[in-house]
Amino acid sequence: MRQPKDYLVFPLDVPTMAAAADYVRQLSACVGIFKVGLELFVQCGPEVLSMIREKSDAAVFLDLKLHDIPATVGRTMARLADYGVDFATVHCGEGRAMLESAVKGGGSRVSVLGVTVLTSVSGKDIAEAGFLPEYSENVFRLVLGRAKAAHSAGCAGIVCSGKEVGEIKAHLGKDFVAVTPGIRPAWEQTAGDDQERIVTPAEAIAGGSDYLVIGRPIRDASDPAAAARRICNEIAAALT
Ligand code: C5P
Prior knowledge:
240 residues; alpha/beta; TIM Barrel; 8-stranded parallel barrel; 15% strand; binds cytidine-5'-monophosphate
């Protein structure tokens, strides 16, 4: 039976090993997965993954959002799998071949997640990137098309907005994992930040999200562990 904390993914969006270790120490009791992104991985390398394993029982998500030719993505995913990470990401935007190569490279060792459309991206951004109004006026069409590509390539799931999970699962099944960033508790709306398609933790759970990525509302709180506990309470209430 999953506990509320198992739904909570904390991104270690900090620049140093010392800062990352401090958050792992503070949050291990209330976070199910620690996510390592580009900034921390470029700074610390694979040692940061070992640090998380030593200091906590949480799973490890290496979020490098790979995006390259299929052969390079496949070979890189195989190296990431060698690190023993539980989850890793690849962009869906270039279509099936890159996704299939990522899944093949990861083998059964890592759950590969396809990044559909970043939650910081709006319809205006999509239009400016040259997509047809069919997509810029309805970003979900693009998200769903990319989720279908990830599903048929064999990805374990996708990263998408909490607003989009219900319909994606209706098309692709409830076992197709949905990881949702862009979550803002009602008590903490980070003014003017870069997330666009946001939902609250309770809305994300009600929508069927499997994992909630929540960073700044915890990282920048005066008491990060208390903020994480408050979010876990909200998740628990939404689950019942
Ligand atoms: O909660 P907060 O906005 O601080 O979370 C930011 C984290 O979510 C970053 O680590 C970012 O990489 C991640 N993320 C995202 N949108 C996506 C995928 C991941 O914001 N579509």
